[in-house]
Amino acid sequence: MERRNLFPPPLQRGKCRANAVSETEGAARSTTSASIKVTRANEARRMDFANQVREEHEKIVSAIAAGDPERARVAAGDHMLSVAARVRLADREFWRGNGGALARDLVRDFGE
Questions:
Q1: pLDDT tens digits, residue range 68-97?
Q2: Closest alpha carbon to 87 in 12, 25, 36
Q3: CA distances to 12, 13, 35, 103 from 8, in Å
Q4: What would the pLDDT profile of 5-43 be if each residue is shown by its tens digit?
Q5: Closest C-alpha to 77, from 103, 51, 59
Q6: What is the pTM for the complete model shown?
Q7: Where do the H-state alpha helices sit in the chain?
Q8: What is the pLDDT of residue 68?
Q9: Buried b vs exposed e over 53-73: b needs ≥16 C-beta within 10 Å?
């Protein structure tokens, strides 16, 4: 089994910490943005998914507004697990079309 270096590429290359953190933050933003495009494309195809997302976001916002960071963390973690489940439930047509193209872009960009 191939071992994958889990450190971001800037740290793998031994760059100074400030530059590595800056590059890592930029890569994380880019990956997050691409991931959101995939999930939103999937959710746009199904109203039940869109409603679930709205409810999950409301739980996160409610916890933050209540000043309850632990509840917000749990709600955000639950949301991430639900996002993954919804992507797994995407139909074949989604993967053949725009969703598949977006996902391939994400995987390609993540590997760089």
A1: 999 999 999 999 889 888 888 888 888 888
A2: 36
A3: 6, 9, 17, 20
A4: 444 555 445 555 555 445 555 555 666 777 788 888 888
A5: 59
A6: 0.63
A7: 9-12, 17-44, 47-65, 69-88, 92-96, 98-111
A8: 95
A9: beebeebbeebeeeeeeeebe
Asked whether the beta carbons of 56 and 79 are under 8 A apart, the reply is: yes
Q: How far is CA 29 from the centre of its chain?
A: 10
Residues 6+ apart with CB under 8 A from 5: 12
d(CA 81, CA 66): 23
To which residue do tokens 């971001």 refer? 8
Model confidence at 104: pLDDT above 90? no
- Find the length of the chain: 112
